[in-house]
Design a protein that fits this description.
Elements lengths: L21 H23 L24 H5 L2 H13 L9 H4 L3 H22 L2 H26 L4 H18 L12 H23 L6 H20 L13 H21 L4
Helix pairs in contact: 1-3, 1-5, 3-5, 3-10, 5-6, 6-7, 6-8, 7-8, 9-10
Length: 275
């Protein structure tokens, strides 16, 4: 039997059961660096003074370093989800047919999901203006990725278009987010932009499934969508009817955890794609 020679990096990408640990390493490095920076930023006030950002999400601000402990710590769900994406993606055979062709895409997705955690926690832990901006940017990144990845596959193009559309969508969200008038239900223009990108991604994923080439297991997408819809319902209810400011059981924390689950399920949808 002739052994399969390794690639220059020492990997055996075509051997069943081969593992590539670089992706989970990138996700772990992102989690470590971003979390350390968050802790230092909160401890030494690098994110600026408390201006009440995030105060509309029910939980009362506490004394001490972390203003909203439940809404802050629940963001660990995104870190776990990003690391889970990296861990599963070690095996090339579990990534479907499209993700490996768009090199770097899975790594970017895992790192973006990880970053959602510390970025959102930056707002809830400090209620600072910069923390709020980091929170919104992380939302734009994940929604922009979902929409750009769907657009790229719909047009059957490569990763150059993916990143061009991704950067364009994130920049557009940043501009929309500058509009400071309150919007019914979603509160801010930035939240509306985030939601519209997710709707675009859902519509394109359904159309891709109906087109049938390549084929995805839409059950993963349906589960991700259901998780987000439940999260959005809790997000709304916890701002008013279910609001208990002094409780550590916060509806907005549930929004974070369900959003993290949705991000992982979305990855599983992508990984189910077969030509």
């Amino acid at each position: 039997m002739v052994a399969t020679p390794p690639t220059p990096t020492g990997r055996f990408p075509d051997v069943p059961g081969a593992r590539d640990h670089r992706l989970v390493g990138a996700a772990l490095a992102t989690a470590t660096v971003s979390t350390v920076l968050l802790v230092l930023g909160v401890r030494f006030g690098w994110l600026g003074p408390d201006v009440g950002r995030g105060a509309t999400f029910c939980e009362a601000a506490r004394d001490g370093w972390v203003k909203q402990p439940a809404n802050s710590l629940s963001n660990l769900g995104f870190v776990v989800a990003g690391l889970a994406i990296g861990w599963r993606a070690r095996d090339r055979a579990l990534l479907g047919d499209t993700l490996p062709r768009l090199r770097g895409t899975t790594t970017a997705l895992a790192c973006i999901v990880v970053l959602l955690g510390p970025a959102s926690a930056a707002m809830h832990a400090t209620q600072s203006d910069l923390g709020g901006r980091l929170d919104m940017l992380s939302m734009y990144l994940v929604a922009g990725f979902a929409a750009a990845y769907a657009v790229t596959r719909w047009w059957r193009r490569g990763r150059t278009l993916l990143w061009q559309v991704f950067l364009l969508l994130v920049a557009a969200c940043q501009l929309v987010g500058l509009w400071d008038r309150e919007i019914p239900v979603v509160m801010f223009a930035g939240n509306a932009a985030f939601g519209l990108l997710l709707v675009l991604a859902v519509v394109l994923e359904v159309r891709l499934w109906r087109r049938g080439s390549p084929h995805t297991d839409l059950r993963w997408g349906a589960a991700a969508l259901a998780s987000m819809l439940v999260a959005f319902a809790i997000w709304n209810a916890s701002r008013n009817a279910w609001c208990d400011p002094d409780s550590l059981l916060q509806g907005h924390a549930a929004w974070h955890l369900l959003g993290a689950l949705a991000a992982y399920l979305l990855f599983r949808l992508y990984a189910s794609e077969r030509d």
